């Protein structure tokens, strides 16, 4: 089966690898153009472009699929297009190019969480289970019929990054199976049913924590915005960022934002909320790198300073 692969970030690289290892003829990769990264803003290829170059697969770079890009796709004579987090809309003219259309691997259990950040919103809103589906891409936002799905349990310390890594593995297997079924004429897509929810792009504002809120709500917001853009709180003019948080239901005597450091070989940090305390596993102080919370606590104890996240 001759296919196009469309994708951009690191989470899509797993699917590209799986399709390559499964023996699909990948005619080309479609990805977004090089973007400036780092403090020096160096133009850098996408993760998918970098991997495609290693695999010696032709690369098409396009911020949007124009008529010119569509004409290029027609010349590839592809049977299907697999798309995973490409980052742009596919116009109707391009949808009609492959014989079997475009097969989208989406990281939610559609119709739940249609849109750009499904895993992030699933965690923030407290879902116990998430997953991935393969579906036929249409002009509507993630509205097409579904070929198959896989599910994953969301555990207390699972962040969006952890969940996306797991789903990229199980979802890529599903994508390979879906394309193989299409190739053999055995694929069956079923229309979506039930109520739908939307998952818009996560912003820096979404990642701001408010310790006057309940602990579970704070933890979910922190984990849903980790690793990007990263959970944070503003203390005067200083910004602190946090890694995963543990809940301590038995510790209820701290005021919201109050910090308690438990001294020891590995000091513990507890932060009060509207309900019970949270224990950050990692803290990034202003102007420094992310570090283990115990290392940060040791420094605070040495300096004898008092910190509050109220």
Report on this model:
- The protein has 310 residues and is of the alpha/beta class.
- Helix content is 27%, strand content 25%.
- It has eight helices and 17 strands.
- Strand 3 and strand 4 (42-44) form a beta hairpin.
- Helix 1 runs parallel beside helix 2 (47-54) and helix 5 (118-124) packs antiparallel against helix 7 (215-224).
- The longest helix is centred in the middle third of the chain and has 25 residues, at 160-184.
- The protein is elongated, with a radius of gyration of 22 Å.
- It starts with a strand and ends in a 7-residue tail after the last helix.
Summarize this entry quickly.
The chain has helices spanning 10-21, 47-54, 67-74, 92-95, 118-124, 160-184, 215-224, 293-303, and strands at residues 2-7, 25-31, 35-37, 42-44, 59-61, 80-84, 102-106, 129-136, 146-153, 231-235, 238-242, 245-248, 259-262, 268-271, 277-280, 282-284, 291-292.
Average of the residue pLDDT scores: 97
- Kindly state the number of beta strands: 17
- Please tell me what the overall shape is: elongated
Helix content: 25-40%
Sheet with the most strands: spatial strand order: 5-2-1-6-7-8-9
Please state the CA-atom Rg, rounded to the nearest Å: 22 Å
Q: Strand share of the residues?
A: 25-35%
């Amino acid at each position: 089966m001759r296919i196009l692969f469309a994708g951009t970030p690191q989470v899509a690289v797993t699917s590209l690898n799986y399709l390559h290892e499964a023996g699909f003829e990948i005619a080309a990769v479609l990805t977004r153009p090089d973007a400036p990264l780092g403090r020096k803003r160096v133009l850098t290829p996408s993760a998918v472009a970098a991997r495609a170059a290693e695999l010696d697969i032709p690369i098409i770079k396009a911020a949007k699929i124009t008529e010119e890009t569509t004409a290029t796709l027609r010349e590839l004579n592809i049977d299907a297009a697999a798309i995973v987090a490409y980052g742009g809309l596919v116009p109707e003219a391009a949808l009609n190019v492959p014989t079997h259309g475009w097969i989208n691997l989406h990281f939610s259990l559609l119709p739940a969480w249609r849109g750009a950040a499904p895993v992030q919103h699933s965690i923030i809103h407290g879902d116990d289970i998430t997953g991935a589906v393969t579906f036929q891409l249409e002009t509507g936002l993630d509205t097409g019929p579904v070929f198959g799905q896989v599910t994953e349990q969301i555990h207390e310390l699972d962040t969006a990054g952890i969940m996306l890594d797991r789903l990229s593995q199980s979802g890529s297997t599903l994508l390979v199976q879906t394309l193989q079924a299409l190739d053999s004429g055995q694929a069956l897509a079923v229309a979506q049913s039930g109520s739908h929810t939307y998952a818009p792009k996560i912003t820096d504002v979404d990642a701001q924590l408010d310790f006057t809120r309940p602990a579970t709500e704070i933890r979910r917001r922190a984990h849903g915005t980790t690793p990007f853009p990263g959970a944070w709180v503003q203390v005067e003019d200083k910004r602190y960022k946090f890694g995963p948080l543990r809940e301590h239901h038995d510790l209820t005597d701290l005021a919201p934002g109050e910090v308690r450091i438990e001294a020891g070989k590995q000091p513990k940090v507890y932060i009060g909320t509207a309900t019970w305390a949270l224990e950050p596993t990692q803290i990034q102080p202003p102007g420094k790198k992310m570090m283990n919370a115990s290392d940060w606590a040791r420094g605070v104890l040495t300096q004898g300073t008092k910190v509050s996240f109220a």
